[in-house]
Amino acid sequence: MNKSTLLKELFTNLSTTGAVTFSSKALVKKMLSFADFKGAKLIVELGGGDGSITQGIVERMDADAVLLVFEISQNFCTNLEKVFPQDNVHVICDSAENIDQYLDGKKADFIFSSLPLSLIPKSNRHQIYKKSKESVSDSGKFIQICYSYALKFQFANHFSEIKTSFTLKNFPPAFIMVCN
Questions:
Q1: Could you name the domain of life of the organism this protein comes from (predicted)?
Q2: Using the 8-state DSSP alphabet, how is residue 107 labeled?
C-alpha cells in the first residue's frame, strides 16, 4: 500500500484513526526514548496505523522479543503485515479492548499507544485503560501519545505514576504520557 492510499485511509476513517497525519519521526523517537528495550520480551503496540511507531520498536527491540500490534483498520493491518513479515511481529486486527485475549497469561514489558482516546466512547476507553493496566508488568510502562493534557486525569484512575512530556516536533504538537 503506497503512502497516498494510507493517507486516504487516514482521512476516510478519521473517527478511528484520530489523526490528521502520521506520527513524525521526532515524536516516535521521543516516545520510544522512555523505554529501555534491552531484555524486554513482550511488547504491545495499540494502534499500528502506518507503522511509524512499529518501525521504531522493531529497530530497537531484541531479536528474541515479540511485538503484538493491534489495529482495527483492515487496510492498515494488511499494510503492516506486508511491511513487517518477521516471525516475531504479530499484527492483530482487533480492538485494544481485547488485549488480554492475546497475551496467553503473560504481561507486556511495554505497551505503546497512539490510540485516539478522546474519540473513543468513554466506556470503551476505560476498558482499554483497565486492560492495559492489567496487561503491563509491574516494572513495565504504558506509553501513550495524546493531543490533550486532560487525558492525564483519566490515566490517573488506573495508573499510580504518570509522567508527561511534550513535543512541538509533530503536527499537531503532542503529549507523551508515561504511566506505571
A1: Bacteria
A2: -
